[in-house]
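Progress report, Aim 2. The chain analyzed during this reporting quarter is listed below.
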Amino acid sequence: MSTTGSIFRDMSRRVVFAVAGVILIACSAPATPPNVLLYVVDTLRADALEAYGNAGISTPAFSRLAREGTLFGAAYAASTWTRPSVASLLTGLDPDVHGVETRRDHAPESLRLLSESFRERGYATACITTNPNIASFFGFDQGYDEFEELYARRRAGRVHALEDHAASDEVTRRAIAWIDSAPRPFFLFVLSADPHWPYEPPARFDRYGGSYTGRVNGRHDARRRLDLDEADRQRIRSLYHAEVTFTDDSLGRLLDHLDERDLANSTVVVVTSDHGEEFWEHGQNGHGKELFEETLRVPLLVRYPAGVEAGAVVATPVRAVDLAPTLFTLTGSAVPEGIDGVSLFETRPGGAVQEVYASLQLDRARHKAWVEHPWKLVWSPGLRKARLFHLERDPGERHDLAAEQPQRVAEMKARLHQRATRNAARRGESGRAAREAAGPVPDEVRGALEALGYLDPAAEPERAPEE
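Predicted structure tokens for the chain:
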């Protein structure tokens, strides 16, 4: 798997180093509002795609979007697990502003989701979700005419891993059926759970080699073993790549359908992810544990022939919170006040590098990240520990430079704390409501979350964050 730091090394396409209005073709409001398809692939690393420099995997649908739209090569998730990250995508707010951060938290009614804004503008709205973290139980059904939850039980009792969610081909089938029946314009949010663990791709996509050595008792407990040898780890990575290829095939059929229905030119298509996945780069696997690049960097592709330049690559760092204002801009709507993000196509004076803020509050993990490219600071409040990395010289984040650069650490930490303090002051009612809305998780939702690895019965209860 290639590193995120080498994404642009072999690219021959034109690279735009500053996010600028030059790549926004149509700045005025469109006469007829376009449709919006927001397709989020759960747990997709940016460097798992051919369009992002991974020559070892074939992902033609993602590559097609890169050719026909704009590719953002340094897109950052707001967090490294699904619920807070998706909440930021749908609100344009940092996690410690919207308050949906821990396993207990629900999206309160006071939060304004994209779906609510689009429905008020006359859009037909639908969500197809395959991850129970983005469920009606957790408040994510606000503003939708239809809300399809594709992890429903087939029988009474506990949800098992093999039936926790629908696969990406079923997601495409449901999306096509809804698009064909929906009024225009429409807003469709899709959350596909492939390539989330457990990695169980259809056999025809399992072509990246490797096999378990025999010390691993099946796919479901393989990832939790700490003593896996490199052959086992390679097999797990190959299954992940197979899931990515499977998802690409499903996405391709959805794009083809937009062509067949003559909707490609009138639809804003955004494809991104909520977070990436670790494969033992820093001694762990999975996600929701740290804020390293392998879980924080995600793909982001935007296609809209009437409004977005085709074939451009933007190298300037951008953030998940920038998506909501971008969709408002592309559909001719004013960006609401109080959003943390800015449009991806807004000119930045002097081409200034955008600062990135991310946070994680999950079980024992308490981390905040601040990126001023090429420098990245990770602050762990509970440990009173700062780590500093130079992403250009050290894209794999192997060398902590905090001890060598105390002045830079102090300056970046001060700016990070300034942002966190501002967010705490803005959190107000939504943060409190997110906590107060939490209640006992229904058995069928709890089972699905456990199957996906989001609930660990042995994990210690979540504590109040340490500052």
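Residues 374 and 434 are 34 Å apart (CA to CA). Residues 4-26+33-451 form a domain with the Alkaline Phosphatase, subunit A fold (CATH 3.40.720.10). These observations will guide the mutagenesis work planned for the next reporting period.
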